[in-house]
Amino acid sequence: MSGPARRSWPLRALMVLAVAGAALWLTTSLRASSAAAGGGVSPRTGEADLGQRVFLRDCAWCHGIDAQGTSRGPDLRTAGPAYVDFMLRTGRMPLLEPDATTEPVHRKYDSATISALVSYVGEQLGSGEPLPRLSAGDITAGRTVFLASCAACHGSSGTGTILQDGTRVPQLYDTASEQIAEAVRVGPGPMPPFGHGTVDDQELSDVVSYVQQLGPAQVEGGHPLDQYGPIAESLLVLLVPLPLLVLVIILLGRRAPRRESDE
């Protein structure tokens, strides 16, 4: 290598390093600008990143990229973590079609994905009713609250029913305690929400404790007919006791043979 070429080699290496450094700085600046412009959909890490990716992939079609709502889905910014968690863990969301009804079915996501969505939508994009914190409840006190506020639709034993407008009220057996508490607070579907002024936190824990012991576990003797709901009870009455009663009435109503009058 000649003398001038040797002397220019450090200069060339320095120029290459300078160009590489400038390119790295420019790339970093562009990423930062893109994140700032993205607002609610800026890159995140960990649980929030998972929640963001799933929300943009499955939920933003109807609820909007910032959960602001569209013509196909409601605004979630004030829904709160309790509402989001309830809808996801009971399988009511996501819907396959925007016009489909929100019926409880098998949930679509695992627990970690649901927690990520709750964290992203319920806490980072908006605010609302937080996840309930339950404590030890009193079953007797819970029964009193349940009979006063819930039994009109769900039945005193939690069997559920069908209302006059055709709305199906689900039975409460095998429902997780967290979902019972969330339903009380957010009032899914036609169910009214019960705020802290109507049912305080201790009463909520009492109601959950009462509901958790409903179902087959509460049958300690006799026939468990009440576990099948009012429809089954009504059918049994129509098919067994009522026909027997009609038969007895017919037999009793038959006129006895007349005696011949004495001459």
Please, could you describe this protein's structure?
This protein is an all-alpha fold and 263 residues long. Among the domains are: 41-131, Cytochrome c-like domain (Cytochrome Bc1 Complex, Chain D, domain 2); 139-215, Orthogonal Bundle (Cytochrome Bc1 Complex, Chain D, domain 2). It is 52% helix and 2% strand. It is built from 10 helices and 2 strands, in the order ααααααββαααα. The protein has helices at residues 3-38, 46-63, 81-89, 111-124, 139-149, 151-154, 177-186, 201-212, 230-239, 241-253; strands spanning 161-162, 168-169. It has a two-stranded antiparallel ribbon. Helix 3 (81-89) packs across helix 7 and helix 7 packs across helix 8 (201-212). The longest helix has 36 residues, at 3-38. The chain is elongated and about 145 Å long.
Overall geometric form: elongated
Helix content: 40-55%
Largest sheet: 2 strands, antiparallel
Count of β-strands:
2
Beta-strand residue percentage:
under 5%
Level-2 CATH architecture of the domain at 41-131: Orthogonal Bundle
Per CATH, the superfamily of the domain at 41-131 is Cytochrome c-like domain
Q: Point out poorly predicted stretches.
A: 30-43
Tell me, rounded to a whole number, the average pLDDT. 79
Determine the structural class based on helices, strands and strand pairing: mainly alpha
Rg estimate, integer Å:
33 Å
Order of helices and strands: HHHHHHEEHHHH
Q: What CATH first level of the domain at 41-131 would be assigned?
A: Mainly Alpha
Distance between the termini: 159 Å
CATH topology of the domain at 41-131: Cytochrome Bc1 Complex, Chain D, domain 2
Which sequence of strands runs across the widest sheet? 1-2
